[in-house]
Design goal:
The chain has helices at residues 35-49, 67-76; strands at 18-21, 57-63, 79-87, 90-101. With 109 residues, the chain is α+β, with helices and mostly antiparallel strands. Strands 1-2-4-3 form a four-stranded mixed beta sheet. The relative contact order is 0.19.
């Protein structure tokens, strides 16, 4: 859970009440089995189930060269926000921020 009043832990400061997905990895043998879909569906459903505070978006960052992960996030409904940040320890590489807006929330895409 990230709130606009929270200290920034990773990425840019939260602009709204949000959850943040960090460190997703699926072993090669489990890829294509639906495990990642189930994991994300469960995580997003949990985010939307919170009532205090009401979560407006789920965000994550993906390495700019990780096309496979970016394609999955887009297929799942995440969109790139245009925000980018340097990869910790490698200022020449960037992480791209993606978000999934809560359905029905003003500003949802």
């Amino acid at each position: 859970m990230e709130r606009p009043s929270d200290e920034v832990r990773f990425g840019g400061p939260a602009k709204v009440e949000q959850t943040h997905v960090v460190g997703v990895y699926v072993r090669p043998g489990a890829r294509g089995t639906g495990v990642i879909d189930a994991l994300f569906r469960t995580g997003v459903e949990w985010s939307w189930s919170l009532t205090e505070p009401v979560v407006e978006r789920v965000r994550l960052y993906v390495h700019e060269e990780n096309a496979r992960a970016a394609a999955f996030y887009r297929r799942f409904g995440f969109t790139a926000t245009g925000e980018r940040m340097a990869v910790p320890g490698n200022a020449s590489a960037e992480e791209v921020e993606y978000e999934l807006r809560r359905p029905g929330v003003s500003g949802a895409r």
